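Quiz preparation item.
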């Protein structure tokens, strides 16, 4: 699969087989996250691999949309670091780019994944921070559940030409 095809065919996968993911593969996926662009190349991120079911269940208890962790053999917690970012708000933008790279890398390896949002929900951030024992300057941004897909999700047509403008608002989408 080429990069463009991967961008268009990646889907959120919420059902997984029980096949495990090697640490080497997880590190390759995280490496892709680390190659994301970041403001002034500050790279204000940290990544936690979560492959213990007990921790998955704790996270499921505090996050209303994390039920797929029950089947996922692994998850990656993407965190932002106040001590490394380019200024207020930048760590979240940078972590979003890293999360997207992780999703695309997983897809390139034939894995299914889904972005489980944490930031900006303060109650989710507080709960995950406590479960994962994160220091004060580290902020949970997103969880990415990973596994071999046990479902197929169709590719919708998301291209909306009417949302493209050239040089000025409202110009060019005829």
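Solution:
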């Amino acid at each position: 699969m080429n990069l463009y095809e991967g961008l268009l065919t990646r889907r959120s996968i919420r059902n997984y087989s029980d096949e495990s993911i090697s640490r080497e593969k997880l590190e390759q996926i995280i490496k892709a996250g680390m190659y994301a662009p970041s403001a002034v190349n500050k790279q204000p991120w940290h990544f936690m691999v979560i492959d213990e079911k007990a921790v998955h269940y704790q996270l499921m208890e505090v996050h209303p949309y994390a039920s797929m962790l029950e089947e996922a053999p692994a998850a990656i917690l993407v965190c932002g670091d106040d001590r490394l970012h380019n200024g207020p708000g930048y760590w979240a933008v940078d972590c979003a780019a890293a999360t997207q790279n992780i999703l695309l890398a997983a897809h390139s390896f034939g894995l299914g994944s889904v972005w489980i949002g944490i930031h900006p929900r303060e109650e989710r951030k507080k709960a995950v921070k406590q479960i994962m024992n994160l220091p004060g300057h580290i902020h949970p941004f997103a969880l990415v559940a990973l596994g071999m897909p046990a479902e197929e999700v169709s590719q919708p047509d998301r291209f909306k030409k009417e949302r493209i403008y050239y040089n000025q608002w409202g110009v060019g989408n005829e």
